[in-house]
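Chapter review: from sequence to fold.
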Amino acid sequence: MSPDLNYAALTVGRNLKSTAVRFPAHVAIEAGSESLTYAELSERMNRLGHAAHHQLDLSPGSTVAILSFNRIEYIEIVVGLAEAGIVVATLNPGLTAQELGSILDDCSPSLAIIDAGLDELADCLDDKGVRKITLGDDYETLLSNALPVDVGGASETGAFAICYTSGTTGAPKGVVIPHRSRALISLACQAEYQCFGYEDRFLALAPMFHGAGFAFALAAVSHGGTCVLHDKSDAESILIRLENDDIHSVFMVPTHFKRIHDLPEERFLGFANNHSLGTIISNAAALTPHLKRLTVERFGDDLLHETYGSTEAGIVTNMRPDLLLEKPESVGGAFLGMEIEIRAEDGSVCEPGKIGELFARGPYNFLGYLNRPKETSEAVKDGWVTVQDLAMQDTDGAIYIMGRSKDMIVSGGVNVYPAEIESVIATVPGVLEVAVVGLADDEWGEVVHAFVVPDSEHGLDVHNIDTLCREKLTGYKLPRGVTLLSELPRNAAGKVLKKILRANFDA
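The token string follows.
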């Protein structure tokens, strides 16, 4: 048999353009008073691809950086350029000039597309000799001078985008994601979450420069749905949008849930009957059992999915709504198409109940870290991907994330897993959020320390933390200290930055 493929390449742009043929007049993206139909989105993607090849002299394999907040042009830029064979690095517009400079050195973009008003970052681009186009008149002029034709250039297994990791444990790494992975995960999301189909309205809150934020927004426009951009982060505006805009699905990180549930309890009287939601997806960091229960109580049953994944492996697990409160500390079983193994240090597969390193294999895996062959070889073992998260699997196949291996505490030569202690402290009345870290100690090497955000509405008796920990945990796992904070430091993806907690405490 010939190795030639007898089918069209599976690319993100081809998925979207196919949908545009099916539903040309349907609204694909809304942003305030602006909107784009699928036909308009497809045409603008074609114009951008043509401009990349014929006006900007970009060739397939070139890299373009985008530095922008969520806006109506974001998806067309990433997908339009990627379909023309251009790899897009989706960068955080909140970077400092120094941080941006390091990333530019890493990915070497031929061009940057930048949001207006990012003056410091624009100066950094100039200093690095990177051409730039500013969103607004400059960008629109570029499109108007291009032809609305498909120039091609994308490969199914070629790079679609570069997403930089959040750098919770070190310098950000460029995660290279292929077209095939991103296209397949959009299809799988529709099947798993029962949303993202025709006429489903998805509310996009998370920043699209982050892997999960972009993946879910893209899933919404891959099959005929509408992606509704919301540019405010306060809880009240989110609830008002959910009540008044016929929203069917939403992806939120724990920060969103926390802000929402900080609102007075009376705000939620009758709320479950005043929204059109069918699906709520939580991802990017663990959602505490307390916030899960509040979400079910206030939003309704059969809505909330707790999902675990990584930019490198895609979505790895999902806890469906019907089982969510049966195992509130679990992130569920394997996601559609995924295989999971919990491995011991010697590489053997752990028995249920034993803690080890989580490895995942599936169709959503990344191609590798940009310019980092050593780190790639450490993350990929025979097609299985690890981001060094520690986990445990029970006899039903449910996965429990125990924390990063780099966050594991070694006290007196014994391994202590922060997630186990966090799950106990989270049940103490008056505890809103908790993060457990290891602090340096001359005698023990490290000692357990808890950083706690108290519930301002109900109050917290700190002595109850010690009492419950002594009841539930053995001696070497007990926190030697508790620090109260108004909030935990998080990155844009909602992940707790434990290195900042350690550094601030030491300082």
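Two observations follow directly from the output. Residues 228 and 493 are 19 Å apart (CA to CA). The domain at 408-506 is CATH 3.30.300.30 (GMP Synthetase; Chain A, domain 3).
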